[in-house]
UniProtKB/TrEMBL annotation, chains A, B:
Gene: amaB_1
Keywords on record: Hydrolase, Metal-binding, Zinc
Positions that bind Zn(2+) 2: D98, E133, H386
Pfam families in alphabetical order: M20_dimer, Peptidase_M20
NCBIfam families xref list: hydantase, PRK09290.1-3, PRK09290.1-5
Source species: Bradyrhizobium ivorense
Molecular function terms from GO: hydrolase activity, acting on carbon-nitrogen (but not peptide) bonds, in linear amidines; metal ion binding; N-carbamoyl-L-amino-acid hydrolase activity
CC cofactor note: Binds 2 Zn(2+) ions per subunit.
Entry protein name: N-carbamoyl-L-amino acid hydrolase
Binding site for Zn(2+) 1: H87, D98, H194
Required co-factors: Zn(2+)
Amino acid sequence: MSRAATNLQIDSARLWGTIHDTAQFGATPKGGVRRLTLSAEDKQVRDWFRKACEEAGLEVHVDALGSMFGLRKGRDMSKPPIGVGSHLDTQPTGGKYDGILGTLAALEMVRTLNDAGIETELPICICNWTNEEGSRFAPAMMASAAYVGDFTTDDILSRKDAEGVTVAQALDSIGYRGDAPVGRQKFTSFVELHIEQGPILEAENKTIGVVDSGQGVLWYDGKITGFESHAGSTPMPLRRDALATLSEIVLAMESIAKKHGPKAVGTIGEAVIAAPSRNVIPGEIAFTVDCRSADAAIMDALDRDLRAAIAEIAARRKVDVKLDLVWRKAPTHFDPRLVDAVENAATQLGYSHRRITSGAGHDACNLNTVMPAAMVFVPCKDGISHNELEDATQADCAAGANVLMHTVLALAGVAS
Amino acid sequence: MSRAATNLQIDSARLWGTIHDTAQFGATPKGGVRRLTLSAEDKQVRDWFRKACEEAGLEVHVDALGSMFGLRKGRDMSKPPIGVGSHLDTQPTGGKYDGILGTLAALEMVRTLNDAGIETELPICICNWTNEEGSRFAPAMMASAAYVGDFTTDDILSRKDAEGVTVAQALDSIGYRGDAPVGRQKFTSFVELHIEQGPILEAENKTIGVVDSGQGVLWYDGKITGFESHAGSTPMPLRRDALATLSEIVLAMESIAKKHGPKAVGTIGEAVIAAPSRNVIPGEIAFTVDCRSADAAIMDALDRDLRAAIAEIAARRKVDVKLDLVWRKAPTHFDPRLVDAVENAATQLGYSHRRITSGAGHDACNLNTVMPAAMVFVPCKDGISHNELEDATQADCAAGANVLMHTVLALAGVAS
Ligand SMILES: NC(=O)NCCC(=O)O
Ligand SMILES: NC(=O)NCCC(=O)O
């Protein structure tokens, strides 16, 4: 690598500026971002991103699920590009960094290479994957899951949000149903920068997380059918209370996850009582379950223990509980050669680092099933994410972007 | 009492017909009724009721909270009438009898007296009280609570539903904000017929419940503030999960109520997660609590135990829980002379009967604080109420209406 390339640093202030400028698209009063996938706010940031890519000389195209790809040519166009990026959608009460840092750092890398006049051997393709968050439409990492063939494009296009709007309708309504078939854009390998979304790097005072693995995920849709009756006149022993049933399930999930110590988590994130009323015993509740582990055997145990607990609770309370697995993502083991490349970049740049497991799911986890992939983490304040208070420092964001760029340069090769 | 009056029976088929004809106003596909107070459906049944009262020769007026009064003159107009009636509003997924039976039986009684040409000494006033259910606006038995002075009319007019619509706006929108000041219509005493809404009469095969008491009610609004964070990357011990907190509160309420055996009940009927998402640990939940006992000392214990349990749970889980008492109704002890009158009527008509405590609240419970009041119960199927499957037999409805009529005749006196 040339001396110029070896010492190359991204423009920290410019990266910080784009993060904070684009946070206007869906800004919330509490300083967070609400930019649900394929919403009007998502269209705003997509339009901005397309223009920024074009201004950086990239050739932009959009696939049938709305994922955006910006190609920077390399000297050797016979090989697929190195993919770099993340997502620009957020949770309903999300932060300014989750996904966004990784996508805008990819753009910053291109701008830096342009400024330095650096050509790479392989082309580079920066990506904005549709619906990584999974909050409006399930599953999470939706577009990359279709990309790797876990779901067909038609299946995904027909998925509905809580209002009954399909992915297809949502794409059309913001004009982001592209022409390119999902999967046509090939990659040689893929690298993603992200905030850790957990407390480990901060606690250990490390700047870079070299992500070598990721938790597997189980997502369920649940429905409890008890019996509505009068809150005043129905004796306690005769009740078939759907909310008391849910309460036991929530606490069972919690203790099942805790049983596996730090190796598992379990959460009920959504619960909606049908026709709620103060003086009516809840009769019907829809809920979701999210549980995870990096260990496939523990994932099986979580599923088994949760189902057994629910069966016992339902029988004892004489209620009906349905639990449908709607998504299963196996644990991720990132490509060892790429993990080493990330570690080398961090070492060469002199950043403190450690290997780490991702608690969250990422598009890179999906992509790793069909190509070599890896990830770079940077700390976030108090490990907080999926919260409007999500925060990270300018220095850590820049460090992560530098590690990302040097990993990509190592993978793509410098031509000039 | 004349022989004609002694043997008088209401028209069972006509009563049954009006119950089932008016069930069209807000009919649900499952055979129930959704007729939230002051809704378009409530206007429909009110318009029907006004016309039916006028056709029965009653002088109808409406008070400032929309309660409807139909006066049948007596020979002695120097005394206030005997009040009879109940309510025509329902729960979101309510039945065809709760409140409706009592209101339409009062109308049926007037029709029967008219047909038999019977004049009473005292006048009779049949009533449809606004918002007995308390589902759209709190508290329940709202209009009768204002009638007895527990709340001012202005306070009640400013109460809001979940959409922010005030009682005043809702009254105006259906044209039922009347001219009469709340409380102007005086009564000598008040009698209300209702389905039991509990399982006792059916289990003991009794036709009539002679209601001598009613449970007191505590209603609370609660709010849990935990901390939203990522469902995948937040370790279990670091969570401040609002839904796990609620779950412990729900189960604590259940066991506190059970501790008092059949003498108490406790229910969480509403719980709403703010900004729910599958992969976000719930950070904020609003909920309601309804707990009851016929024993004032037990009500105090319920309040104390619930607050203590919540304080312990909140401290342990490092979350904030607010619990505001929004309504407290003391236990009811109905007027002994009127309770005897109900019992005498049941005995004379040859119906099996027993004394009973009302599990539910009723307008008669409020009215009993300022005038002698009593209630008649009839069985309902499996004790089910606040459910679209609520059911009762024609024979039991007719028996209840006959006991109601003969109680009223005993109180009003027969003139001719
Ligand atoms: N990184 C991230 O927050 N992804 C959302 C999908 C998940 O729940 O893990
Ligand atoms: N009777 C009846 O269901 N009343 C509603 C108020 C209550 O008791 O919750």
